[in-house]
Amino acid sequence: MPSASPASDRWIVLKFGGTSVSRRHRWDTIGRLAKQRADENGARVLVVVSALSGVTNELTAIADGAADSAERVAKLEQRHREFLAELELDADAVLGERLAVLRNLLVDPRVASRALDWQAEVLGQGELLSSTLGAAYLRAQGLDFGWVDARHWLQASILPNQNAWAQRLSVSCNTAPDQDWRRAFAEQPNGLLLTQGFISRHADGGTAILGRGGSDTSAAYFGALLGAQRVEIWTDVPGMFSANPREVPDARLLTRLDYYEAQEIATTGAKVLHPRSIKPCRDAGVAMAILDTERPDLPGTSIDGNARTVPGVKAISRRNGIVLVSMEGIGMWQQVGFLADVFARFKKHGLSVDLIGSSETNVTVSLDPSENLVNTDVLAALSADLAEICRVKVIAPCTAITLVGRGMRSLLHKLSDVWAMFGRERVHLISQSSNDLNLTFVIDEADADGLLPVLHAALIESDAMPVEETSVFGPRWREIVGGVRRRGTPWWRARGERDALLSLARAGTPRYVYHLATVQARARALAAIPAIDRRFYAIKANSHPALLNAIVAEGFGLECVSQGELERVFAAVPALPVQNVLFTPSFAPRGEYAFALDKGVTVTLDNVEALKHWPELFRGRELWLRVDLGRGDGHHDKVKTGGKTSKFGLPLSRVEEFLAEARALDIRIVGLHAHLGSGVETAQHWRQVFDELGGIAEQIGTIQSIDIGGGLPIPYTEDDEPFDLEAWSAGLAEIKAAYPGYQLVIEPGRYLVAESGVLLTHVTQVVEKQGIRRVGADAGMNALMRPALYDAWHDVANLTRLDDTAEDVFDVVGPICESSDVFGKRRRLPAATAEGDVLLLADAGAYGYSMANTYNLRELPAEDVIGGDGNDGAAR
Ligand code: LLP
């Protein structure tokens, strides 16, 4: 039994839609949730339900006078009887009377005229049936549920400009606070009550319908009238999202919104909550929540007036089928009443305008098909009328893309990437709402396909959508449905490793520390891929001798780009056969090629000019050829190494010329190579590269090896998924089967070493300046350039206080005299973070030390290696 007594005046309203009341286990959930809410909150619970799914559509057809109404009624009766059988209830005892009412409505004298009051009665039967059977079932489960006729309590109010249809079939209800009403309602004897959505009482005592979305609105009206603690809308999605999850799987659950933002999102996009239902709760100060019946443990979306104001884009949405009407009139602004004439013509055709854009000679408006009947006839008639006063052009179909959030105006500077994205499309109209809550772009519908996921990512990337605000943004849709793979706990969090790091830090910082076992694990994972014949490690990522040895011990060769790297390899791994060394330079001086050729390593060339200018150097040799496949890819523009603007690779248009030059010099081209960039996240990338190179190799005829480069990504952020080696491997196996005659070669760098390395640094100072707290480190962009150069993300942890919760927000900066000397903004670190603490920058094993420099005459960082498994053959 619920603990709240019937006398309690604290209420919680729960609303369940059609799919939530159509199955037996869903009613079990309703009963359980109602009881739980009552027990937890000491409140009484009012449950508002919709009709079983599909029933209202049937009733609408009957109310519209469908010829087969009798059949439809019979089917509805059968449907409800079957459901009662599933609920193990006696159909005649529970619904006999109600089903008779439904049947009688078909022989009612009002049928012929389809009187509005008759239509309202027909439409209301679905909720009366579902609530009656639900109450019977819940009582049978031992719950103290009372059944309430909503028409006794919700009074339709008549608005002056409403026509007779709207006054009966699309009504609003009075929700002015009324103590007598509240007292009378509370007098009902049961602790738990069940009532209908969608219906209310007309002034004449008959039924009046709330219109579409009516059940949400009913719950909101009851919530407002009862001054409820909360109105919970239970539905079949987990809440409102930052975009439609079906289109943007990375969309975030919005866990907390204020009424105005929620209203805007409900109006422009998400269909989970009817926009009409928000105002009654807002006016009465009643909190709302959207929750998922199948996943009741998720936080859902809370909507209330106390939500902390977080500026930023909360959601993007897309509405299709928008019609634009562009009106050109010469010198229109000089004409008094021009706009009045224009809008009078829209009114005449019953069209309500959504967005408006204007210039000196043009006014463009949009028509939303969900608000208007916009068919070709209406548009032709409108155009004809408008042609009397201006030149008219109808542009359709268009898509309206809307960004919703607080403070759109102050966000404009963050939207540059978004502008750039729209710059590629034709934007017909941009409109900003006067409440500063939305910004809408109208583009051709055809251009909108696939745009939302990219736009969503760009908004996050540019900080316009502040997803790090955990008070507003919850999990991604993909996480909720279980489609996300997570990176593992990093090695340095283990107690032993962390103590080892702290003691190394005492020897001085900045200091890189590499965890050999992590390098070995990555190397072994790559070595186990059957499709790959030869593996070279790109030592530019990290050329520490111990790492080179460990990687060679796993069967890798080494790839170098300079004489310095070659010399490092020969010194660190003297036993490495020269066939296992690859030289892939870019614009290197002649002497470095000579050095490499002299040593006997494999040399890759990527231009014709070298052959022309240094023929004697290459005559009679075997070489590999690096081509540019015409495009780049990678985590940042600066690491893309393909396409016209990139300095790397021979364009395909010059391959013939290169081969002719080579033949003349008796050179054999035995390898074909492409590396299009670093940190590539496109899973199909390598397989595609192999496919293209395979095609070229067939034409060259002398190729033995196809090198598809490196570029494998690692998960730097918590949201990044680990690279799917299995899928990668399967893709490579598949494409290799198409070109079985070639050795498949890879040359990754980052993947092998990035996660093995951390940069340790001591906190120098903690300083507050005008609201921003900064933690200073003794390592700066000289020690780790990636954040300054690529805006790259490296997790930052306070190793000294690793067990403290990281709850305060700091910018983490270095000691270099450059504004770009910032490791991370708005990072969470323990509140007590102070001078002398050891900070750790994670995943710094690749392109960390190898790109470090002595700018500002700061010394290079120190380096240490820990934690091999004894099978590494490392030279220390
Ligand atoms: N092969 C060639 C020809 C390369 O140019 C590179 C990297 C690799 C292989 C190895 O790529 P990886 O597997 O590491 O992505 N400093 C940048 C990365 C520059 C990569 C340069 N070339 C960063 O820190 O992200």
Structural overview:
- Its EC number is 4.1.1.20.
- Residues 327-400 form the ACT domain.
- This is Diaminopimelate decarboxylase.
- The chain is an alpha/beta fold and 876 residues long.
- Among the domains are: 7-236, Acetylglutamate kinase-like (Carbamate kinase), CATH 3.40.1160.10; 313-465, 2-Layer Sandwich (VC0802-like); 536-741, Alpha-Beta Barrel (TIM Barrel).
- The chain has 29 helices and 37 strands.
- The chain has an eight-stranded mixed beta sheet, sandwiched between helices. Strands 21, 31, 32, 33, 34, 35, 36 and 37 form an eight-stranded mixed beta sheet that branches.
- The N and C termini lie far apart (72 Å).
- Bound molecules: ligand LLP.
- Ligand LLP binds next to helix 28 and helix 29.
Which short descriptors sum up this protein?
eight-stranded mixed beta sheet, alpha/beta, binds ligand LLP, about 900 residues, elongated, single chain, VC0802-like, Carbamate kinase, TIM Barrel
How do the strands and helices of this protein lay out in sequence?
Elements: E1 11-16, H1 24-41, E2 44-49, H2 55-63, H3 69-86, H4 91-105, H5 116-140, E3 145-147, E4 156-157, H6 164-169, E5 172-173, H7 179-186, E6 192-196, E7 199-201, E8 207-209, H8 214-226, E9 230-235, E10 252-254, E11 256-257, H9 259-268, H10 278-284, E12 287-292, E13 301-303, E14 312-328, H11 338-348, E15 356-358, E16 362-367, H12 376-386, E17 391-406, H13 408-411, H14 416-423, E18 427-432, E19 438-444, H15 445-448, H16 451-461, E20 473-476, H17 477-480, H18 495-506, E21 511-515, H19 516-527, E22 534-538, H20 545-553, E23 557-560, H21 563-572, E24 581-583, H22 590-599, E25 602-605, H23 608-613, H24 615-618, E26 622-628, E27 650-651, H25 655-664, E28 668-673, H26 685-700, E29 705-707, H27 725-738, E30 743-746, H28 750-753, E31 757-769, E32 772-777, H29 786-790, E33 796-798, E34 808-813, E35 822-829, E36 838-841, E37 862-866
Parallel strand pairs: 1-2, 1-9, 2-6, 3-6, 9-12, 11-13, 21-37, 22-23, 22-30, 23-24, 24-25, 25-26, 26-27, 26-28, 28-29, 29-30, 32-34
Antiparallel strand pairs: 4-5, 7-8, 10-20, 12-13, 14-16, 14-17, 15-16, 17-19, 18-19, 21-31, 31-32, 31-36, 33-36, 34-35
Helix pairs in contact: 2-3, 2-5, 3-4, 4-5, 8-10, 19-20, 26-27
The structure holds ligand LLP.
